[in-house]
Amino acid sequence: MTLLNLESLLDRLSRWDEDQLARLLSLRPDLLHQAPGDLTVLAIRMSSETSIRAHLQRLDAPALRLLRTLTRSAAAQTPTPAPEVDPEIAASLETAGLLFAAEGTATAPETSSRWGTPARMPHILDSLQAQHPQLPTLLQVEPPEQETETISAAMAENASLSVISDLLDDVTELLGLLAHTPAATLRTGGVGMRELRRIVAQSTRWGATTGTRRSGTLEPGLGASVGSDASVGEIGWLLELTASCGLIELNDSQAWAPGRLAEQWSAAAREHQHQLLVSGWLIAPRAPMLLRGPHPTSRIAPTLALDRQRGDAEALRRVLLQTARDLIPDAAAPRVLLYALNLPEDDLPGADALRGALFRRLAWDRPLLSARVGHLLPWLVREAERLGLFAVGTLSAAGQALLDSGGSADAPEAATSGTPWAAGLTGLALQLGRSLPSQVDTILVQSDLTAIATGSLSAPSATALSDFAQREGHGAVPTFRFSTESLHRGLARGWSAASMLSWLQKHSLTPLPSSLSTQITDAARSWRGVQIAPAGAWLRVTDAEQRDALMKHPELSGLGLHVVGEDVLICEASPTALEQALTTAGFNSARTANAAPAQSRDSGAPMLGSSPEHTASWSLEASPWEHSRVTSPHLVAPESEEVATAAAALHRAGLAAPSSDSSVASDVIGTLRSALAARRSVTLTRVSPQGSTHHVTGVPTAMNAGRVRIRVREDEGEAVVMLHRIAAVEESGMQPSREGER
To answer: Name one Pfam family in it (predicted).
Structure first.
């Protein structure tokens, strides 16, 4: 195989027409950032290690296997019989500028020398194989066959809806805990293991006492044993998920607490709650949030730390979900088994952590990607299960609706704008709105001091019961237990014995047992505390008859008037609203000098996005994490018009005189990697902070953490140079390679 230097590549490109150039730019969009001015700049970029590595990530197994086989002959520098080449694969590689057929191939001997490739290709493939030892095994994977084992669609649907209901309950519980005690951060950033355990201990829903013993074991919760380290790790995932949606934010004390969006989310419909959670997860530039430390028994890495930023996280989720979608092309098709997860709680995941058609298709379509992120794929699948997008080993109806890009006729046109996920998220919300059972507000109060909901409780009813009763279990139909501690908590949150009894009598389908009424009365009698409540304004009324008239007047019934003294009343409205209501009711009023106008706590305006009509508003356009100090690069695919314009401009510009300085300067990292692997001498052009330049010649010995260590030729000492200070790199003592030479 022939290794093509810059001059050889320029000779090839100069013969390409506009259509060929346009196809190249479409396949490799990184070449257009910024748009090259001529074919020389284009050849420099397309032969750089950075650009070649980026496109190799997108090749399937047959293409990568062919490229690897052909480059072996170049490394051996001896003509070898040409392997059987698929014309379509060779054409696709040639379109991408990775493989070139030699001139006169019709009469050329059938040897590997009939093909040409950029000069850096052998080194790049060798370094990739050294970096990913499992790559040769993945390249030998057989073509994926159609899976025959099927799963009941009703089973997958029920499992998905159950998981979604549990997730919404988990997030609601977490927001309630953080509202009372925010999650403190470490000095180094993130929420540590001790704080995670404190959150678990505050709630019996996640603590070691949650669940019932069956056959001597506790029921699992949150995907792991309740109270275990794995369960605590999934609490960290809930923190990551809510932060990625903007439901929790850092307050002035650098602790994570519910933000302004949390109040709107709590009042929203369940399908919109789930839509926001999925939206935040999809675009979060974060590593898999369920990934534990180096060993499951070790301490979990700090949650919400900046070192979990990962620029390709969104692309990985998209590839995973789209691959599953391709395996189930039709929503009406039988649900085939796509994968099987094996994530042991007490040991490291093995090579069989993810098995099945999903893994085989990923290995076939993206072998390099699978080799690079194979250890993350099981955790990504587990996160998709926690969101209800995957269920019992297949793609759920919710995941199908998300990936159908909102193609339903019910999807509003506004959903087609915004992020690439916006239309699919709208379709997901519409599908869940039709699938989730209706919420109820009724309960069955029993004589054992428990209350069982008659279905999935609405948000107001669930919040009210959670104030003065303790929830038990993790099912969609909850059970609440009344105790002295829970009733005292309700009294501390503003309930009285009369209001609790009134609420229970209104919502219970069964008569209240006398034991519960007695317990509520006794708890109110034994509770000692200071009650606080909001007050917008106060009134002084010295006439008792006038005070009684104020309390009974229908125009003032909505102000929340309360008598706190013999001649003092308070109300929840602001002084301005109180004065207007008194004037309307025909009462004279006088404002004191220190009563400044204030805005009402409730202006009556609807919350943005809380209405079901504003479905698209529950899709995030940008992740809250993109405002952190660590940015995640996004390479936007160019439009067809942009590609055509750039191709025409390149064809007109033609060639420019190739400059060794420009060629190596555009691929500093690739040149240093090649020299480091071959122990070749290089000359660095370094720019000082003052703007002056000087040259350093030597052999690179190491490169990491943004710096390169080089053994200087003159004094045999070592120097460390920061990569961002290097303006150019040139390999020393090497002549430009001719076509056919390495």
So the answer is: Helicase_C_3
Residue 422 lies in a domain: yes
Question: Residue 114 is which amino acid?
Answer: R
pLDDT, average across residues 688-717: 81
The Cα-based distances of 138 to 363, 496, 663 in angstroms read: 6, 66, 34
Q: What is the pLDDT of residue 95?
A: 92
Interstrand relation of 354-355 and 340-341 (parallel, antiparallel or unpaired): antiparallel
CA 66, distance to chain mean position in Å, is: 35
Tell me, yes or no, whether 342 and 417 share the same domain.
yes
Question: Helix H segments across 437-574?
Answer: 459-468, 484-492, 497-507, 514-526, 544-552
Residues 423 and 566 occupy one common structural domain: no
Question: Average pLDDT, stretch 358-380?
Answer: 91
Angle at 163 between CA 162 and CA 164, to 5 degrees: 90
- Contacts of 92-101 spanning 24+ positions with Cβ under 8 A: 92/63, 93/63, 93/66, 93/67, 95/20, 95/23, 95/24, 95/27, 96/24, 96/27, 96/28, 96/55, 97/24, 97/28, 97/46, 98/52, 98/55, 98/56, 98/67, 99/67, 99/70, 100/4, 100/12
Calculate the average pLDDT of the chain: 79
Closest CA to 418 of 410, 426, 430: 426
Q: Quick check: is 576 in a domain?
A: yes
Residue 738 identity (one-letter amino acid): R
Say how far apart CA 412 and CA 566 lie, in whole Å.
58
- In this structure, how many other beta carbons lie within 10 angstroms of the beta carbon of residue 54? 15
pTM of the model: 0.75
Residues 333 and 403 in one domain: yes
HSE-up (13 A, CA, CB side) for residue 460: 5
**Cα(589)–Cα(346) distance, integer angstroms:** 71
The reply to whether 643 falls in a domain is no
Residue whose tokens read 């219970």 = 508
- According to DSSP, residue 218 is labeled E
Given phi > 0 = left and psi -120 to 50 = alpha, else beta, which region is 706? left
Instruction: Find the domain containing 41 and state its range.
Output: 2-131
In what helix (H) or strand (E) does residue 407 lie, and over which residues does it extend? none
SS3 541: coil
170 in the same domain as 110: no
Cis amide bond preceding 431, omega within 30: no
Q: How many angstroms separate the first and last alpha carbons of the chain?
A: 10
Q: Are residues 259 and 387 in the same domain?
A: yes
Asked if 303 and 393 sit in the same domain, the reply is: yes
Distances (CA, A) of 694 to 363, 545, 673, 691, 714: 47, 94, 21, 10, 14
Q: Please identify, among 394, 417, 435, the residue that sits at the C-terminal boundary of a domain.
A: 435
Judge whether 600 lies within some domain: no
Name residue 687's beta-bridge partners. 693
Q: With contact defined as beta carbons under 8 Å apart, do 247 and 265 qualify?
A: yes
Size (the chain), residues: 742
Report the number of distinct structural domains present in the chain. Answer: 5
Domain boundary among 546, 562, 585: 585
**Burial grade of 104 (CB within 10 A; 0-12, 13-18, 19 or more):** exposed
Note the pLDDT tens digit of each residue in 379-431.
Answer: 899 999 999 999 999 999 999 999 986 433 333 333 333 467 888 898 899 89
φ and ψ at residue 91, rounded to 5 degrees? -65, -40
